[in-house]
Design brief:
By secondary structure, this protein is α/β, with parallel strands linked by helices. The chain has two domains: 85 residues, Leucine Dehydrogenase, chain A, domain 1 (Rossmann fold); 124 residues, NAD(P)-binding Rossmann-like Domain (Rossmann fold). 41% of the residues lie in helices and 16% in strands. The strands form three sheets. A six-stranded parallel β-sheet has the order 1-11-8-7-5-6. Strands 3-2-4 form a three-stranded parallel β-sheet, with helices on both faces. A two-stranded antiparallel sheet has the order 9-10. Strand 2, helix 2 and strand 3 form a beta-alpha-beta unit. Helix 1 runs parallel beside helix 10, helix 6 crosses helix 7 and helix 6 crosses helix 10. Bound molecules: nicotinamide-adenine-dinucleotide. Nicotinamide-adenine-dinucleotide binds next to helix 10.
Length: 283
């Protein structure tokens, strides 16, 4: 039987309806959530992401403040901007679009963002809080992945969860979130021996490696939940995931499409974190 398609676009739309109501109540009480998005240079993919974030902020009533900086901006100038945004009462969340140009130390920039406004969840304080299970802004893509697994109706508790990829943005944080949900988690990466047999054991398989159609149907257990995080731009301009969707969907219980799966939920979680931060102003 073909898999349930976990429609991230639809789930994101439902979430936006709820958030729009919540934001309009906040605006009535004098608080309009605000997100500052900082983009350095002219990376076309980053420009698309930033524009989409701005558009989605507008749809739920969040103010977005855009800072488009030249590729040549110095690390200190960027630090100074973030320090100002940390102090700006109209800004509840700060997002610095990665990757940054090579001459800028990414860790120093992420360290500079106040943990109170770290809606992307990449600051070391936020990461520490995530790992120890404390309240924090959940990193957006991993949090979106958990929402999509929940949409499948499959409980994470006690399940064999296999994560392909160990990046700081996706692989590691999603592994900790799965652990938080009481999954038994295995992380695979480029040096893992025999990924195939490990993946085949997964009740829940998360692919975040950036190789088109890496996950083939013979790597997937019958009835597994398969979450495809990959965004791979092909030569013909199309976008495809890390999972061989057409074949894997015949074997999985539930699967996310690319596009229209994890991507829209990532932005949804960013909006949710920005609202959560703005709620501090209403205390
Ligand atoms: P990354 O390049 O930082 O990390 C890739 C990971 O895959 C590494 O940990 C590496 O060890 C592992 N890997 C590479 N080759 C492998 C192999 N042959 N076998 C097993 N593991 C291997 O990438 P990332 O930032 O984690 O992103 C992964 C993918 O997810 C990319 O396609 C990216 O575009 C996409 N992504 C999507 C969203 C979204 O919102 N949908 C967000 C972030 C990233």
């Amino acid at each position: 039987m073909a898999a349930i398609i976990l429609d991230g676009s639809e789930l994101a739309k439902q979430n936006r309806i709820e958030m729009k109501k919540q934001v309009s109540q906040m605006i009535e009480k004098g608080v309009t959530p605000g997100l500052a998005v900082v983009l350095v240079g002219e990376n076309p993919a980053s420009q698309i992401y930033v524009n989409t974030k701005k558009k989605m902020c507008g749809r739920v009533g969040i103010n977005s403040y855009e800072y488009l900086l030249d590729e040549s901006v110095s690390e200190q100038e960027l630090v100074d901007l973030i320090v100002n945004l940390n102090e700006d009462d109209n800004v509840d969340g700060i997002l610095v679009q990665l990757p940054l140009p090579k001459h800028i130390n990414e860790n120093r920039i992420l360290d500079t963002i106040s943990p109170l406004k770290d809606v992307d969840g990449f600051n070391p304080v936020s990461v520490g809080r995530l790992v120890t299970g404390a309240d924090c802004y959940l990193p957006c893509t991993p949090a979106g992945i958990i929402e999509l697994i929940k949409l499948s109706g499959v409980s994470i508790k006690g399940k064999n969860c296999v994560v392909l990829g160990r990046s700081n943005i996706v692989g590691k944080p999603v592994s900790f979130l799965l652990l938080r949900e009481h999954g038994t988690v295995t992380i695979c990466h480029s040096r893992t021996v025999d990924i195939r047999s490990i993946a085949k054991n997964a009740d829940i398989l998360v692919a975040a490696i950036g190789i088109p159609h890496f996950v083939t149907d013979d790597m997937v257990k019958e009835g597994a939940v398969v979450i495809d995080v990959g965004i791979n731009r092909m030569e013909d301009g199309s976008v495809t995931g890390d999972v061989d969707f057409d074949n894997v969907k015949e074997k999985a219980y539930a699967i996310t499409p690319v596009p229209g799966g994890v991507g829209p939920m990532t932005i949804t979680m960013l909006l949710r974190n920005t609202i959560k931060s703005a709620l501090r102003r209403m205390d």
